[in-house]
């Protein structure tokens, strides 16, 4: 095969237009369907998290009540030691960990 024949084949290949009609059929519908599913998947997590906010608030409130209730029973509380209720030994115990 010589160069002229090869160039002729390349020219014919470049000038031939492929039939893209099957790929074009329903392209917009497929594209919009794919975008819609991706959007629904990306919006699902924030929507679920937003619905769980009341449960998170209830858990935080319960933990806060529990901490307040148990801190009044603790005699080595830094706040009470600073206020002068228990004195210097409590401060020493708190800071040294003994």
**Unreliable stretches:** none
The ordered H/E elements are HHHHHH
Strand percent estimate: under 5%
Shape: elongated
Helix content: over 70%
The count of helical stretches stands at: 6
Structural class: mainly alpha
What composes the largest sheet? none
Radius of gyration: 37 Å
How many individual domains?
2
Give the quaternary arrangement of the chains.
Answer: single chain
Q: Mind explaining what this structure looks like?
A:
- By secondary structure, the protein is mainly α.
- It has 2 domains: 1-44, no CATH class; 52-98.
- Helix content is 78%, strand content 0%.
- It contains 6 helices and no strands.
- The mean pLDDT is 79.
Secondary structure: elements and pairs:
Blueprint: H1 3-15, H2 21-24, H3 27-51, H4 53-71, H5 78-83, H6 88-96
